[in-house]
Amino acid sequence: MRPLDEKETTVVFEKIFKFVGNNLKNIVENPSNEGPESEPSRYCFRLQKNRVYYVSESLVKRATNISRKNLMSLGTCIGKYTHAGSFHLTIMSLNLLAANAKHKVWLKPTSEMSFLYGNHVLKGGLGRITDSIVPGDGVVVFSMSDVPLGFGIAAKSTQDCRKLDPNGIVVLHQGDIGEYLRDEDELF
């Protein structure tokens, strides 16, 4: 497990910034109360086998006793690098994104299952939407009872959604909590 280099850090932060905006500062400076230290440590990003982890510094220090070959996972896996070198957020980053989300979309109960099976969010299933969303923004998808269901990319702006037909795509699906069942072998 090693720290991210400058290029990797830039790519990861750009992807997270797409979803949380200026709240990225909250993620980076979040204090950690894990470990035996009386002073709270901070969280950091580490790379292990093409996966990026969000982990407390005190846990990283304790994990140095484990060889890289034997270390499977540490902290929260927020994403992974593909063979082509691009970075993709995984569904395990949802709690981090939901707590700091800049743009949110709430689904009607009738369209939650469709989204959880990997389909895009349609205008007919939209319950609420935050203002000032532009196409290409990262969006966190919630149920009407504020349970985070997944995340995606806005296909339409907030104003365009108001005059869109019910079968128009509002959010392009990127990840949902149904992946824990569908892709459980690939997640870890």
TrEMBL record:
UniProt-listed InterPro entries: NIP7_N, Nip7_N_euk, PUA, PUA-like_sf, PUA_sf, Ribosomal_synth_fac_NIP7, UPF0113_PUA
A GO biological process held by the record: ribosome assembly
A Pfam match: pre-PUA_NIP7
Subcellular location field: Nucleus, Nucleolus
Chain segments annotated as coiled-coil in the UniProt record: none
GO MF term list: RNA binding
Domain of life: Eukaryota
The keyword RNA-binding appears for this protein: yes
Keyword Acyltransferase: no
Entry keywords, A to Z: Nucleus, Ribosome biogenesis, RNA-binding
Gene Ontology terms: cellular component: nucleolus
Residue ranges of every copy of the PUA domain listed in the record: 103-178
Principal location listed in the UniProt entry: nucleus
Classification via PROSITE patterns: PUA
Matches recorded under Gene3D superfamilies: 3.10.450.220, PUA domain (2.30.130.10)
Known role: Required for proper 27S pre-rRNA processing and 60S ribosome subunit assembly.
Subunit annotation: Interacts with pre-ribosome complex.
Family: Belongs to the NIP7 family.
Name of the protein: 60S ribosome subunit biogenesis protein NIP7 homolog
Native species: Arabis alpina (Alpine rock-cress)
